[in-house]
Amino acid sequence: MFPIVEAGFIAPGIRRFVIQAPRIARKQQPGQFVILRLYEHGERIPLTIESSDPVRGTINIVVQSVGKTTRLLNSLEAGDAILDVVGPLGKPTEIKQFGTVVVIGGGVGAAMAYPGAAALKRAGNTVITIVGARTKELVILERELAAVSDSLTVTTDDGSYGVRGLVIDKLRRLVEQGTRIDLVLAVGPIPMMKAVADLTRAPHIPTVVSLNPIMIDGTGMCGGCRVLLDGKSKFACVDGPEFDAHQVNFDVLIQRNSMYRSAERESLEEFERDRAAQIGAVRGAAAEACALSEESR
Amino acid sequence: MSQPPPGSANPLPLRDRVKLPRQHMPEQPSELRILNFGEVNLGYGPELAQQEAQRCLECAKPTCMDNCPVGVKVKEFVQHILVGDFSGAAAIIRQDNVLPAITGRVCPQEDHCEAGCKLHKKGESLGIGYLERFVADYEQRLGIRHVPTVAATGKKVAIVGSGPAGLSAAGDLVQKGHQVRVFEALHELGGVLVYGIPEFRLPKGIIREQIDYMRAMGVEFETDVVVGRTITIDELMHEEGFDAIFIATGAGSPQFLGIPGEHLNGVYSANEFLTRINLMHAYEFPAYDQPMLDLHGKDVAVIGGGNTALDTIRSALRLGARKAYVLYRRSETEMPARVEEVKHARQEGIEFHMLTAPVEFLPDEKGWLGAVRCQRMELGEPDASGRRRPQPIAGSEFEVPLSVAVIAVGTSANPVVQSTTPGLNTDKRGYISADSVTQRTSRRGVFAGGDIVTGSATVILAMGAGRRAAKSIHEYLIDGGWGG
Description:
The complex is a heterodimer of chains A (297) and B (484). With 297 residues, chain A is of the alpha/beta class. Helices cover 34% and strands 30% of the residues of chain A. Chain A is globular. Chain A starts with a strand and ends with a helix. Chain B folds into 3 domains: 14-142, Fumarate Reductase Iron-sulfur Protein, Chain B, domain 2 (Orthogonal Bundle); 156-252 and 413-479, FAD/NAD(P)-binding domain (3-Layer(bba) Sandwich), CATH 3.50.50.60; 254-410, 3-Layer(bba) Sandwich (FAD/NAD(P)-binding domain). In chain B, α16 (307-318) links the parallel β7 and β8. The N and C termini of chain B lie far apart (52 Å). The model of chain B has no long low-confidence stretch (mean pLDDT 94). The chains are: A alpha/beta (297), B alpha/beta (484).
């Protein structure tokens, strides 16, 4: 059992959790993720680690409500617990002095881009950060990102905050202005990452994206998360999740991520029909398991 | 050959024992079992077990035991069955095999003990596996726990992986008085036993009970730890104070064919397909959250000819597949699957297409898997494995319409532990180099065994490696020597 120490919404539908996981907290590096399973009948889902505190033995994750599992997770409170959290998984982001780095976070991807931006800044890079959201209230981690960036641009689709438009528009302007860019690190929705890759391909700007295929074990055992890179299969869980954006076949990734769409819809509808009972059952089971492990101690 | 051996509890003269037929294993009828995930083999009752035990010739020099990778004292346990002491029989097995209810179900006895049985030459060998399963189940039903107490040595051993090699080593080491902790990457204990082998061949409840037994013996378990990521071998030794480590991570990395179209939706590795079903209960969706593709009315093929291939395709059938094919590039003689599994699969209506190799997965109009293009093969000269090498027949290509294809052509070494353990030698395929008797690696105090050393093999061979490692670890912990 992995106790939730803190939990709170940082934007509508987006919640940050501080989870007691001392072994993971000690080892976590930027770019790595955990796989978690909420309860006995739960599925395993991967989530990027936003940051960790090795002294306190905690990791932070930022979760957007999308399907059943994330909605269930976002219904949990401090004092509840998660049945399984395993990690840190995947290869860490390559951190060294590149020169000038553009870090791009789309939507909740801003939280995933944050640890990379912070580490790249510490390594002596000039960090230009661009984060985008649909609308003002969905802009997250602005303060944290500003603290580790030499410049920060916020874009919103509806223009309710920052610059109206998409993150890609800002990147395009930087490229067109002839800004020297030694590396782009982009994390967010697949269409955004694909657009970034398309933009930086011709000018040969090295670009890294963090991919989010469907995963089960996260240790290289099932091959479900395979992505196509220059025609070759790679496992995102052990060979990634970060890859050279110019080699990624994004269309295959989009197709593969749609594989269980109808089942996901069914699961969600069922959850929404009986939301309170299902949340209650998960929280109750966690409390019971915690009490048991207290007793055996 | 006419009199029973001196002191035998079996009144039958040997010539009569030879005439007795092997007792048939009761089975769930095939037309029923393809509709559920319940066990196919139902197990002997006491009567059948005692009748079967009467067939044992009680050889002065039993060759069945020599053929067992863990050295189970077959004759001795069968004699206990003869006199009705079933718990005693189980206790005898447990001296050498900590997982009898599991090996009684999935060990290929026909290649080991039963191949060594003298009855084999005269007809059908003794049903040793069936008898083992019977006494193990009997013991489990009674809930008897012979937990031996031993003096603690104060030494700590970490075992990486809770599959058959790791569990076997853990059982032996804890009985020597060492403190044993097993680390497992997944949320469930048992390794390939839980994610790989379906419920109808090895029920999860059986594995859980065997592991509970080991817990009662004092073995500690920690799930959700990926050694190499969550903690390294060096940290286990230097920071957590383990005196020895046994690496038993298995060969868990799925191999693909490297042919076009493998990324299409509908193409799975056997590991993923079986993990979704076995570990994640996708067949009980939506009561369990992990989904899988709906196979009702769909045509499904597995590529490969081993037990994993058959587990896969028989699972697909139970999930409603309309057509269920095995595509195998060699002929039936070369198939590595157990004879019993092939028989069960045929009874259930699985179609076998031998000398057939896929060359490309083809998309349908949605861009999902729609068909597989295959070519016919013929057998040429023997290859490195001693089996005749399959060669394509020119111009023989044909297409099979399919919704789901599962690739079950073997696994390779997962590099996570090796790549994070400096000084740990591996061979060129990435398997850990370890001595075949002592299971020692190039790192002092670090041992390895099972599939991560040999490449994919069987449950019982992994357990044999676990036993050798336990013996060798015990010797190392007692005298501390490593030698050159």
